[in-house]
């Protein structure tokens, strides 16, 4: 692989550090390209060499000082670019908005990357002008919510995609299913590359056969925020069905940073306060440790791109029950590498749990081995990072 460290790519998600899978991407790409990160810093983060952070401070005084410095630097070094940027921010209605976006845009223009890789489709509304005004190539990742349901519930976003998708040089899709969804907003097939999310090798080294269950308690875990698209109401209905059938179940939901009134009322109405336990957001390492104590992972979502927690569970040997949403069928083969059930079907979820319980230990270990092998082939870290490098190389040539 050729060394492109004189080339740079901005991996833009808006927050530093970003989500786990984007952080994996940053670390992998930085071995070959200089990675530039623009956005707010939520906590101090140390990266390996070849990652440059250009913070947009949330502190107003610090933001004022840094933005004035950057603006003057751009004016002195490249006055034409400064004038183009000032003209661009006039599209925002208020002075406060113009200043806010100027403080976000000016470091990108000043420390110009060779490629701007947007991680969220909605951001295209604000950053598309870097292609039209500054001729910076754009890569857009197609992930989950921003493609699967946002343009459906917000028609103006669908119109925005139809307007801005032609400006994108290359689309990166985490699954074939989500690439298909995105074609509703433009003729993008010839500009789309399917690259799954990378899983670091450390996940695969944690694989172990599932121990024989020694008691009747079924430990089920889900990971995700409280949002209707995550389908937790159907998971909880399934727990109620299992309880009615006489099964002893403990269901834990991790990652719900805010309580949901609808979910709390549902738990009260179904008298499941003892069976369902809600944990807040946990660090990635703690989530992984918790998964290793559970019997089965449940993904009850209505829509997904390709759920990373499912990939992680399959990598470590935790059986998975998932709804057949988004790209999940691309990794889960029903009763071979996990269980796949229809969306919005609590009865089907409950039946899959019963089938899991009735599967003998040898058959279950064969299933988790196949699942582990499947994700190790499809989501090998080095292979996927190489695919991203190839994508960037193609654009930079």
UniProtKB/TrEMBL annotation:
EC number: 2.4.-.-
Ranges that cross the membrane: none
MF terms in GO: glycosyltransferase activity
Keywords: Glycosyltransferase, Transferase
Glycosyl transferase family domain mapped to chain residues: 217-372
PANTHER family: GLYCOSYLTRANSFERASE (PTHR12526:SF630)
Protein's name in the database: Glycosyltransferase family 4 protein
Provenance organism: Winogradskyella maritima
């Amino acid at each position: 692989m050729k060394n492109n460290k004189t080339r740079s790519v901005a991996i833009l998600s808006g927050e530093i550090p970003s989500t786990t899978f984007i952080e994996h991407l940053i670390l992998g790409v930085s071995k070959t390209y200089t990675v530039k990160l623009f956005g707010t810093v939520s906590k101090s983060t140390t990266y390996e060499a070849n990652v440059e952070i250009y913070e947009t401070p949330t502190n107003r005084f610090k933001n004022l000082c840094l933005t004035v410095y950057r603006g003057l630097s751009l004016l002195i070094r490249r006055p034409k670019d400064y004038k183009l940027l000032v003209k661009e921010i006039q599209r925002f209605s208020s002075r406060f908005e113009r200043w806010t976006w100027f403080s976000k845009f000016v470091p990108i223009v000043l420390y110009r990357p060779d490629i701007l890789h947007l991680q969220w489709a909605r951001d295209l509304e604000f950053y598309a002008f870097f292609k039209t005004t500054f001729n910076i190539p754009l890569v857009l990742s197609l992930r989950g919510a921003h493609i699967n349901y946002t343009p459906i519930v917000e028609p103006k976003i669908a119109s925005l995609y139809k307007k801005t998708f032609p400006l994108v040089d290359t689309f990166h899709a985490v699954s074939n299913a989500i690439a298909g969804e995105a074609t509703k907003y433009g003729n993008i097939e010839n500009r789309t590359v399917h690259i799954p999310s990378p899983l670091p090798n450390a996940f695969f080294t944690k694989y172990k056969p599932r121990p024989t269950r020694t008691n009747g308690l079924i430990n089920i875990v889900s990971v995700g925020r409280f949002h209707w698209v995550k389908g937790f109401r159907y998971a909880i209905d399934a727990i109620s069905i299992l309880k009615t059938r006489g099964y002893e179940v403990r269901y834990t939901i991790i990652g719900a940073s805010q309580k949901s009134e609808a979910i709390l009322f549902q738990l009260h109405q179904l008298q499941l306060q003892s069976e369902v336990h809600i944990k807040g957001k946990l660090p990635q390492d703690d989530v992984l440790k918790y998964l290793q104590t559970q019997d089965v992972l449940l993904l009850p979502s209505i829509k997904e791109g390709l759920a990373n927690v499912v990939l992680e569970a399959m990598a470590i040997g935790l059986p998975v029950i998932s709804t057949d949403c988004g790209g999940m069928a691309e990794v889960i083969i029903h009763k071979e590498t996990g269980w796949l059930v229809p969306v919005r079907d609590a009865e089907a979820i409950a039946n899959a749990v019963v089938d899991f319980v009735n599967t003998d230990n040898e058959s279950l270990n064969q299933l988790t081995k196949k699942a582990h092998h499947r994700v190790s082939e499809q989501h090998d870290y080095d292979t996927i990072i190489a695919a991203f490098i190839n994508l960037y190389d193609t654009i930079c040539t």
